[in-house]
Amino acid sequence: MQFTAQQIATLLQGKLEGDPDARVSSVAKIEEAEEGSLCFISNSKYEEYLYFSNASVILVNESLEITKPVKPTLIKVQDAYSSFAHLLEKYNEIISGSSKSGIEHPSYVSPTASLGKDVYVGAFAYIGEHVVIGDGVKIYPGCYIGNNVTLGANSKIYSGVKIYDECKLGCRVVIHSGSIIGGDGFGFAPLSDGTYKKIPQIGNVIIEDDVEIGANTTIDRATMGSTIIGKGVKLDNLIQVAHNVEIGENTVIAAQTGISGTTKIGRNCMIGGQVGMVGHIHIADGTKINAQSGLSKSVVSINTTLNGSPAFEYKSSLKSQAIFRNLPELQQRLQKLEETVQELTALLSTQNLEYKK
Question: Which among 15, 56, 208, 354 counts the fewest CB atoms within 10 Å?
Answer without folding.
Answer: 354
